[in-house]
Amino acid sequence: MARKVPSLISLVIETIKREVVHEMETLIRHGRRCLSCAGRIVFTLLKHNLTGDRYTGKHTCRSIATYSIYIYCLYLDSSSSSSSSSCINRINSCLDEAAELASLPSFDGCIGEMNVSDGILKCIGCEGHVNHANYSKLSYHCQQFGHYASCLRLQNVFCVAETCVLLRKSNLQSLIVRWIISEKHVDGLCKLLLQNSETLTSLEFIYCKLSPTFVSAICGSLNVVNTHTHGIKHFSINTSSFLEINPVSLPPGFVSFLSSGRSLCSLKLHDNHLDRNFAWMLFSVLLDASSSLSILDLSDNNIAGWLCNLNGKSKCKVPLSLGIGKSLQSLRVLNIRGNDLHKDDVESLRCALVSMPNLEILDISDNPIEDDGIRCLIPYIVEAHDRCSPLAELYLENCELSCSGATELLDSLSNLKRPLNSLSLADNGLGSEVAGPLQKILGTAIKTLNVGGVGLGSLGFQELEKGLMTELKLVDINISKNRGGFETARFLAKLISLAPNIIAINTAYNLMPLESLTVICSALKLSKGSLERLDLTGNNWDFQPNHASMVAEFHHNGRPILILPSYLAVDVPYDDDP
Questions:
Q1: Degrees (nearest 5) of the Cα angle 356, 360, 363?
Q2: How far is C-alpha 231 from the geometric centre of its chain's CA atoms?
Q3: CA-to-CA distance for 340 and 65, rounded, in angstroms?
């Protein structure tokens, strides 16, 4: 019997089928374990249709590739958290690439008609189909996979009406926008915000110039349709500028946004050149707002004197005229680092902290508060713990503290019935004399301690090593940049033996000689702890072949525990002078 000669179309379809099935089976073998349930169903249907006897117009290269990418997105969506963001990352890659081209002065056309590069097409499974015009167009990818675009980052060139059309299928939850500087950008952005007002929960601005009119328009666009409230939980403006700031009032739309946002839990205004008046007005609004604000970040501005109106108030109470809202009462994290705050600011801050009974984390690093400033803060810390305050983390890095002020603080903290979980005094010139007070704090239940760059020296490490006598609760410690020499290694050996729960140690740039490695490895061999990372970078070591085998046995989950100095940097001197 003569064998039936296959048709040309059947040969083409069989070739495509083998390629698609092979790629999908490879994905299954090398994936996180299995496809999602939905992916299995679609895959089965695809396989069944391709092996059937009939081939209709639906079984074209376009539909097969679409199914393949769809299955891939379902797989990623059902797998680990890192993999589930891959589809979003691919869409963002398309948009970032298009933004570079659209920003050129020579660009004059529709954004959706822009071509996606071969590299991006390869990542999302469309390589080899570029002969189909639709596959190489940005509009195709937005329309086909816009549904997965829950988290996007957009340059200002995308803040136009066309973007709303391209992303009409999206349900944005998180949006990052950059370089908003003109009314045209704001108008386009507002349309996109209105389109996603019911799903958007996180909004961040970077490198923007915002006038009061711009701010009010943007905030007004966030309200859910037919309501006067919004669903934003996280709102950030970073490394931007507020233009034409009114010295006596905030933009009305911004005030309404803060007052009506009952879902708002994180407000970050970092590095925006904010002054004391803006910060005080913001503080006043938050006192009377009804949101459950959890995080307030005003870092890297210039708000010195922002709470001066509280100075001299009886018993440091906030004036009743400012309201008794719950926004600051629910605050857990306050970050005001890098604001050129001094002693007077700390006195005022102590009064304001009374309005934050649930504060857990306070960061006032990079402010020259000096010893007098820390002495103003100590009574608040003691009183807070007497009131069973949840204050657990305190960051005082680079505050121009001396050993005297740090000693008073450490002595007070060591006597608390419920010690802090985390403390950082890094980059203050405390000297070796602070070793004694540090011994006391190490003897408490503190879990994280950062004393990097405080000038302990070899004498300080020697005193610390002698004072370690009992088991420690430490989980993470940073003792880097202290020029401790060989005494650093001796302290490490003692520390490792007495801290069974320690996970991370940073001892970089301590001028340790190479023989320190032998001491450290011996301590690790005897240790029964759970150390995952020990940073030894920045020490000028001349490695020998036997050193590689010495450190090779120390791993955690397949990764080396010892982070050794780079061979490329051994001749680079380290200078920790200010």
A1: 90
A2: 21
A3: 57
